[in-house]
Structures are given as structure tokens and as C-alpha cells.
Amino acid sequence: MPTLDPSQLAIREMQEDEEQMILEMLKDGFKDTENRLILYVLTRPLALLLLAVVSSGLRFLLNSFVAALLGPVLLTILALKMLLRHSPDLGCLRAYYRSGRRRLWVAVCDGDDVCGCVALVPHPEGAPCTAELRRLAVSRWYRRSGVGRRLLAFLEAQARAQGYKRVVLYTAVVAKAAISLFESNGYRPTGGRSWLGYTILREFSKEL
Ligand SMILES: CC(C)(COP(=O)(O)OP(=O)(O)OC[C@H]1O[C@@H](n2cnc3c(N)ncnc32)[C@H](O)[C@@H]1OP(=O)(O)O)[C@@H](O)C(=O)NCCC(=O)NCCS
């Protein structure tokens, strides 16, 4: 899709009747990342080695080679899916983001087409003057047309207006589009979260 004219795009708080639509948009954005992240985790050398060891052990207990091979893989996928789905505030989006200093905004194209969203929350670990960016997603149809960049600029302006001096965010290592968006907007890697020694989530931050 070509870049949208700035006058076509407005950003405002999410309305009650948009909650379901936004949930679907977030789930859609998350699904791609989730599948790529699971593939990424399963193909790390250490994960492959562990799966091979468990499969070999199971081969002594099970008659079927296929079951011994696929069982641990399927169980790992299931466990990772359950782990990644754990998102306490997704079920009651509007109530969560209207409490305290949390806010969720939507991008609206041509007056009525909701095409993206972004949320801001105070840093959960209480880092001073730090806001966290969450729930950034753009609907598939509107991707690569400047909506993500606009939402990011809007969020930063909101954070500044609320007195924050820094924005922090966490994104999966496999979310290439998001990483490129953040890096091209001045965000720098400041940490990460690892699993089996492999970075899974990258932390980016920007001084406002
Ligand atoms: C990440 C996301 C929000 C980007 O939104 P978008 O509206 O497509 O982004 P924009 O059109 O504003 O693009 C801005 C920049 O992001 C980067 N970018 C966006 N999509 C990209 C892609 N598919 N591949 C590489 N870079 C990409 C580019 O640097 C781009 O600048 P350019 O067009 O001048 O090259 C969108 O792809 C999305 O919703 N992804 C799924 C959910 C997700 O990953 N959310 C982030 C969670 S932290």
C-alpha cells in the first residue's frame, strides 16, 4: 500500500465498540511473531540437542520411532504457545487501558477505518520517568504505509506530555519489521531476555 497522506490518518483513544476489532488485530500481529519465535527457539542448537536426547530416551519406552521423535517436539510447541499466550491484560483491553496512566490509542484512516493501535503504560518495574510502549500493531492491509511510524511518533509525544523522559519496549528477535521501525526511529538495544542462552526478546529504548 502507498504511504498514506498525513491528512488521511487520525489517532484517538479506542472506543468501547472497537475493542473486539483491536483484539483481533493484536492477535493477528502476534500470531506471525509467535510462530516465527517458536521456529526460532526449536532450531537453536541447544534446543535441538535437548530434543534429540529426550527422543532417544523415549525410544526405550515407546515402540514407535515417530511417536518418540514427534512427542517431545509437539509438547515443546504446546508449552511455548501456552507460555507466549500468557497476557493478563488482553482479555479486558479497554478496562485495563483506562485505568491509572495507561492509555490505548487507535489509528483511523479516512474517518472510519481503524487500522492500527498502540498503548503506553508506566514502566512496570518503576524505572523513573520511563514509559513502556505496548500493543503496537497495524492491520495487514495498511502495513508499510506509514501507520506504524505515525503511531510511534504519537506515542512519544504523549509520553513527553505526561512527563516521561524515556520510552522502553520489548520485541521478539524475530519481529524484523518492528525492529527496523524502532531502529530507524532512534531506538537503541539496551538489553534482552534469554532462554537457554539465546536472546528471545530484545529491549529497545529511546531518550525523549
Ligand atoms: C511492526 C508494524 C507495527 C509496522 O507497522 P507499519 O505501518 O507497517 O510500518 P510503517 O509503514 O510505518 O514503516 C516504518 C518503517 O518500519 C520498517 N518496516 C515496516 N515493515 C517492514 C517490513 N515488512 N520489513 C522491513 N522493515 C519494515 C521500515 O524501516 C519502515 O520504513 P520505510 O518504509 O521507510 O522503509 C507492523 O508490521 C505490525 O503490525 N507487525 C505485527 C505486530 C508487531 O510486530 N508489533 C510490534 C510489537 S513490539
Automatic annotation (TrEMBL):
Function of the molecule: Probable acetyltransferase.
Location of the protein in the cell: Membrane
Record PANTHER family: GNAT FAMILY N-ACETYLTRANSFERASE, N-ACETYLTRANSFERASE 14-RELATED
Cellular-component GO terms for this entry: membrane
Family of this protein: Belongs to the camello family.
Record-given protein name: Probable N-acetyltransferase 14
Residues that span the membrane, as ranges: 37-54, 60-80
InterPro entries in alphabetical order: Acyl_CoA_acyltransferase, GNAT_dom, NAT_camello-type
Organism superkingdom: Eukaryota
Native species: Pelusios castaneus (West African mud turtle)
Domain N-acetyltransferase stretches: 9-207
PROSITE patterns linked: GNAT
Entry keywords, A to Z: Acyltransferase, Membrane, Transferase, Transmembrane, Transmembrane helix
GO molecular function, one term: N-acetyltransferase activity
Stored Pfam families: Acetyltransf_1
